[in-house]
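Supplementary Methods. Inverse-folding protocol.

Structures were first reduced to a discrete structure-token string of length 618. This string, shown here, constituted the complete conditioning input.
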């Protein structure tokens, strides 16, 4: 598919819209955040206590939001949630604007309080954005998309942090607040244009359950979250470094603050651009090497009396930090089911800002008992050690659990996973042996091949399955098995439409295509494969199959790492094509059945369809 064709796909258009909306809202965020913290710091004569207190009051709500609000993204329509959060943020700022214009006497406290509210909502917005991307993009597009989000964030950091203090100089606080309100309103209007994303079925996300009933993260993901926390314990000093260095070491605080912030923002943009082009072929290695670079940069940041060394090392630290963040967040998202993407995003944000909060709190504590210059040097060296520890944890995780993430768990691929892994996780030996036996048994059992399809919120979706079974004649019931956390599973619930096209021997290419994880999302995935919506349900039905059925889902039952979808048959249509034989899957290959009932012939090696797996799902 050409770049021009990809740009025309609905999910690509939605990605561009999402990035545009995020750019507008993040400019407002950085504009307001930088101006408020800068104002409080300078009004109190460069007080480190005021600076760190303001930052902690910003970051503590992010911790609570990451833990309590972010998981809600997994149970909501992410498009509507993003729009609603922008509207809510605009309303909160409008209340502040009215209060400021009304002459309140505690303006600084009120603005920092509103900033804390915005910070509380930030993880919910980020989680909803991440969950949206996870639901609508192929897995191989997640890393470039996260890199693009990071790049937008840091460009807006450059513009917002440069503009925030200037707005206060040339205008006043009400103007700043009004500008911020405008950014959220424009962002909400842009988000209205987003393509809707399927909402995963609640409570069926797969994985081992914790005591609270939520699925437990894989051990690999847990290790990487610890690595994220450790790195930010060191790298979190970047939140105080520009203000402290500019005011206490470099004389002209306003000029040097702008220079450092500009250099840091550009460094982060370069890092996000770089990681977006790395792709997945290097696995976790770029993240581990980036953590080492962060450690070296933190050590270099101790040369604060040499201005350009301070600027270069801090911007290099942010460059490497973006590579680290995108690589590890992508890997964690790929490790876990789509249906918990919001929770995973929240935990990543929690690990990040918990480390930052510890770093800033240490700065406040150490500078209160020792001279600033001594304290900063000690903290930077300690931060370098913490970042190096993060690199070691990441390297250990790569050795223990593999350098690259598992391929998306799909019906077409899961039957051939690497020995010892199930959805990229290491089961116990008995479970591994049992899974291997089930796979072998499935490969020895000849099955037909079908296309299971549905339509949800106007978005059609289909995937190759070989788990289609007739269950009952009275009432007429059929069954398919779908992987938990897959796109198809997220779109199927009670009374959902379900289409079944029984594929013919001439549809090998269609079977392969709809078992691919990198195919487009929505109606564009059917390009080149003639289809029509079912007359009763609207579910997509491919042309040229041997038969088709239209059904309504009666119930969805969790069954290990899959769900059993039981559906009522509403119609059955044979295709009336003489001599059209069905497509068969046997021994790991798609095969054509001879007209003379005998052994299958015309073997064509292809991506094997595993036992009960549900197509190219993520």
């Amino acid at each position: 598919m050409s770049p021009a064709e990809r740009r025309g796909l609905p999910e690509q258009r939605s990605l561009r819209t999402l990035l545009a909306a995020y750019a507008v809202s993040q400019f407002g965020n950085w504009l307001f955040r930088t101006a408020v913290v800068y104002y409080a710091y300078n009004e109190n004569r460069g007080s480190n206590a005021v600076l760190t207190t303001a930052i902690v009051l910003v970051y503590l709500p992010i911790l609570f939001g990451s833990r309590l609000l972010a998981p809600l993204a997994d149970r909501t329509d992410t498009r509507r949630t993003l729009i609603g959060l922008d509207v809510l943020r605009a309303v909160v700022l409008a209340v502040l604007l009215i209060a400021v214009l009304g002459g309140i006497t505690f303006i600084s406290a009120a603005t920092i309080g509103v900033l804390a509210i915005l910070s509380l909502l930030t993880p919910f917005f980020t989680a909803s954005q991440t969950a949206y991307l996870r639901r609508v993009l192929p897995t191989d597009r997640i890393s470039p998309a996260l890199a693009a989000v990071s790049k937008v964030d840091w460009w807006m950091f450059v513009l917002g942090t440069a503009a925030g203090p200037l707005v206060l100089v040339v205008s006043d606080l009400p103007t700043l607040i009004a500008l911020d309100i405008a950014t959220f309103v424009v962002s909400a209007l842009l988000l209205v244009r987003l393509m809707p994303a399927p909402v995963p079925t609640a409570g069926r996300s797969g994985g081992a359950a914790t005591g609270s009933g939520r699925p437990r993260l894989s051990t690999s993901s847990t290790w990487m979250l610890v690595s994220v926390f450790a790195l930010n314990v060191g790298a979190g000093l970047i939140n105080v470094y520009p203000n402290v260095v500019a005011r206490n070491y470099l004389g002209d605080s306003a000029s040097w603050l702008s220079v450092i912030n500009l250099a840091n923002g550009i460094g982060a943009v370069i890092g996000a651009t770089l990681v977006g082009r790395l792709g997945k072929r290097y696995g976790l290695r770029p993240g581990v090497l980036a953590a080492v670079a962060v450690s070296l940069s933190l050590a270099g940041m101790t040369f604060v009396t040499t201005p350009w060394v301070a600027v270069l090392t801090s911007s290099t630290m942010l460059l490497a930090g973006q590579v680290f963040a995108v690589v590890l967040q992508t890997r964690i998202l790929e490790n876990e089911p789509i249906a918990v993407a919001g929770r995973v995003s929240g935990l990543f944000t929690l690990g990040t800002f918990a480390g930052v909060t510890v770093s800033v709190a240490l700065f406040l504590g150490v500078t209160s008992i020792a001279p600033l210059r001594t304290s900063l040097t000690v903290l930077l060296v300690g931060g370098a050690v913490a970042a190096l520890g993060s690199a070691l944890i990441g390297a250990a995780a790569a050795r223990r659990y593999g350098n690259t993430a598992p391929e998306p768990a799909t019906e077409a691929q899961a039957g051939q996973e690497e020995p010892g892994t199930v959805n990229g996780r290491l089961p116990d030996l008995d479970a591994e042996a049992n899974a291997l036996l089930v796979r072998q048994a499935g490969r020895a059992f000849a099955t037909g091949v079908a296309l299971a399809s549905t339509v949800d919120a106007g978005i059609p979706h289909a995937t190759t399955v070989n788990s289609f079974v007739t269950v009952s004649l009275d009432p007429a019931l059929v069954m398919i098995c779908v992987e938990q956390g897959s796109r198809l599973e997220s779109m199927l619930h009670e009374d959902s439409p379900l289409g079944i096209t029984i594929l013919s021997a001439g549809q090998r290419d269609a079977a392969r295509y709809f078992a691919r994880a990198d195919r487009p999302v929505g109606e564009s995935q059917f390009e080149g494969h003639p289809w029509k919506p079912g007359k009763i349900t609207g579910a997509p039905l491919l042309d040229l199959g041997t038969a088709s059925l239209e059904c309504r889902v009666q119930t969805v039952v969790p069954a290990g790492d899959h769900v059993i979808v039981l559906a009522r048959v509403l119609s059955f249509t044979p295709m009336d094509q003489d001599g059209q034989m069905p497509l068969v899957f046997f021994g790991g290959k798609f095969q054509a059945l001879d007209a003379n009932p005998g052994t299958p012939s015309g073997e064509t090696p292809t991506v094997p369809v595993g036992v009960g797996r549900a197509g190219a799902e993520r």
